[in-house]
Amino acid sequence: MTNPLHSDHDPSTGELQLEERSSLRRVVGLSTELQDINDAEYRQLRLERVVLVGVWTEGSSAEADSAMAELGALAETAGSMVLDAVIQRRDKPDAATYIGSGKVKELREIVDATGADTVICDGELTPGQLIALEKAVNVKVIDRTALILDIFAQHATSREGKAQVSLAQMEYMLPRLRGWGEALSRQAGGRAGSNGGVGLRGPGETKIETDRRRIRERMAKVRREIRGMKQARLTKRHRRRATPVPSIAVAGYTNAGKSSLVNAITGAGVLVEDALFATLDPTTRRAELPDGRAVVLTDTVGFVRHLPTQLVEAFRSTLEEVVDSELLVHVVDGSHAFPMAQIDAVRAVIRDVVAEQNAEQPTELLVINKIDAADPLVLAELRAVFKDAAFVSATSGEGIEALRHTLAEYIAETDVTVTLEIPYSRGEIVSRVHSEGAVVHEEYSDQGTVVTVRLPESVAGELEEFRR
Ligand SMILES: Nc1nc2c(ncn2[C@@H]2O[C@H](COP(=O)(O)OP(=O)(O)OP(=O)(O)O)[C@@H](O)[C@H]2O)c(=O)[nH]1
Ligand SMILES: [Mg+2]
């Protein structure tokens, strides 16, 4: 394992976060309540004992199983206990009830037999499908989108992250308010007949309409707040960009081991958990590479297939970090049954953001992690396809030192080599050159210290006056 050089963080932070999160688990579901619209009768996800349902439309049965396993992991991350899972093979989901009527009956029997209180469907269901299925099985039915929103709501810690998630939840809720519970009765007085046009709403407005209006108002407010926070973040990032320390973004599918890898490389205590979306806010750690150079690594939120569109915006801040960095370390879970599909999913999202921002595609270094637990056949395939990839285990430490050297080489490629003569009176410049670059040669002349050093271009520019 590597030394915790320049770790500017208390290694107990991850531990603390983990504790906090476990205590949060016990009140699962509370985080999805939007306190500010407390009388809106939207569905509250109190997930406890759940049955999973999937429709398998394409691919092999092993892939379908793997998709269900992921849904199960998501459900557990949200704090629920998975009792059973049903998959139905069909060309496309049933328009009325997502799964066909025969399967609905079977599902109802499973729900009754297991005592489940919630059914989770893989995919995004229409409001109509949710209601119809709920009627048929007689317990709460939610979809994958709601589940992911719930996890994000539980895990977001930064103010901007929380605001983004609450906005996404409201966006999801808005079209689904209708029919949410027979409890949504009309307000006293009923609808004010045909004369209740624009501006005359009020007593005759239905409860759903009032709720919708309140949610829209709240959404507008949150949007304004986010704009303000975004500005602050951009300023901060700008300031960070002004310091010439190269930045490395660590991205990849959720649970690939990104945080573990950042810890292994830097020795810092970033939160690691066998749960999806353990990391939601980008965290940055300093590290020193074998050539003595300082870099910063940013641990980012994980990717997932079919990310709810409402959350894409919430991901944006993390993706901007990726696009902005010198090097993108793309971490892959080598022990997963289908790492290729995950690699493709991650690359597709990054490509989209790069295109959208008119940015340059950052250099990507693939890091296949968890080689200690990987199937040798899958590993052999990955080695054959990705010849430049690094193969490591963040937990055993295998390959980490080699990876640190590889990182140094990648970063060095963006460097220039210069010879500087630094007067003896400017010792601070000599220290700076040592910490920000890789010194190739050093000697002492009558005038000062003469160093030949590889430096990031921006630093070399700043030290132009000492060039020889
Ligand atoms: N066997 C094995 N397990 C690992 C390795 N690296 C990470 N893990 C485990 O994988 C799980 C996820 O690790 P994290 O580092 O939290 O993964 P992440 O990519 O940051 O996950 P999210 O932040 O949730 O997206 C944890 O249980 C780790 O202990 C490895 O090299 N080998
Ligand atoms: Mg993480």
From TrEMBL:
Alphabetical keyword list: Cytoplasm, GTP-binding, Magnesium, Metal-binding, Nucleotide-binding
Start and end residues of each Hflx-type G domain: 246-415
GO cellular component terms given for this protein: cytoplasm
InterPro entries: G_HFLX_dom, GTP-bd, GTP-bd_M, GTPase_HflX, GTPase_HflX_N, GTPase_HflX_N_sf, HflX_C, P-loop_NTPase
Bias (Gly residues) ranges: 190-202
Subcellular localization: Cytoplasm
Cofactor(s) the protein needs: Mg(2+)
Residues annotated for Mg(2+) binding in this entry: S259, T279
Major location category of this protein: cytoplasm
Residues annotated as binding GTP: 252-259, 277-281, 299-302, 369-372, 393-395
Annotated region described as Disordered, given as residue ranges: 1-20, 188-207
GO function term, MF aspect, one: ribosome binding
Family named by the database record: Belongs to the TRAFAC class OBG-HflX-like GTPase superfamily. HflX GTPase family.
Family matches, as NCBIfam families: GTP_HflX
Subunit and partners: Monomer. Associates with the 50S ribosomal subunit.
UniProt function note: GTPase that associates with the 50S ribosomal subunit and may have a role during protein synthesis or ribosome biogenesis.
HAMAP family membership: GTPase_HflX
Protein name (Swiss-Prot/TrEMBL): GTPase HflX
